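#lab-general

N.A. 3:47 PM
ok so I finally got the sequence cleaned up, no stray characters, all 124 residues accounted for. can someone with queue access submit it? mine expired

B.Y. 3:52 PM
send it over

N.A. 3:53 PM
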Amino acid sequence: MTEKVRLVRAGDRRPGHPTPGMVREEAFATEGVWAGLVRTDPEMGSGWNHHGEHDTAIYDLSGLFVMESGANGSQTHRAGPGDFLHVPRGAVHRESNPSDQPSAAVVLRAGTGEVVVNVEGPDA
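B.Y. 4:20 PM
back already:
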């Protein structure tokens, strides 16, 4: 059976999995793919999380997108509009927007199982 192409308009996105400090909007989820939008208000940061068995690609649409990861959060990556980030399966991280402008990014996850797992923080 062939699946039909589907259009998800901006107003049709649903609330995505919550992580403190950010708003996720789900465009669609299939057996192996999750796609949506994430917004982070100015001077806000998320809680620590990972995406289980999902690889994640992030495309920064607007604003500053800062990601901390690694032992004790020792690695920091700063993405701006037009930049991509890759978050490997199981990588504990948190996002922030230290600027005075809102940020928004398109998120695509490929994998299986839980899409968002909130945790206390990265291992040392």
